[in-house]
Amino acid sequence: MLTRISYLAAAAVIGLACAFTNHTDTPKVITRSASIQKQPSQDVLVKRGQYLVTIMGCADCHAPKKMTPQGPAPDMDRFLSGYNSAEPLGSFDKNLVKSGQWVIFNGQNTAFAGPWGVSFAANLTPDATGIGSWSLAQFKKAMRQGKFKGLDNTRPLLPPMPWPGYASMTDDDLQAVFSYLKSLKPVANAVPAAIPPAP
Length: 199
Fold this sequence. Notes:
Blueprint: H1 2-20, H2 42-56, H3 58-62, E1 65-68, E2 71-74, H4 94-98, E3 104-105, E4 111-114, E5 117-120, H5 136-145, H6 163-166, H7 171-183
Antiparallel strand pairs: 1-2, 3-4, 4-5
């Protein structure tokens, strides 16, 4: 009986010694922290961007429309190319807009008249007349600070562009939207400059 207790005591002492020994000579395996995530693939970014552009309603203003049996729908041949510069603006009652009581949208929903003057939906395709030369930094500045073409010392983005609602988007979401826009078919369409309000 004494021998059995001696063996158990010895085993316990050895177990404790092993538990409290610092194994400095054992190599450590360093794994990537769970908080550091792998950069998503371009395909994943583009798909996420397409989803965001759809739910944000970008095509409501930035896509010319064509009539379908279900009513006006984005013209997919000119998708997100902004106000169609080949079409005349058309006339409207400037006194009505000057009053500040009304805002007028053209039939394509790509040109807008109000107390700020007339603004035109921008070409968001990767053509040189659109965002072809833009950097991600420019895109972020436009979306977060409302800067025309994402450049310092430029005019503010004009109504109805709802950039203040997008200003708090995450970097990841802005990168996804930008990646999607850069993946679109380029459409050559130089949107006219904004027209200041009449005196």
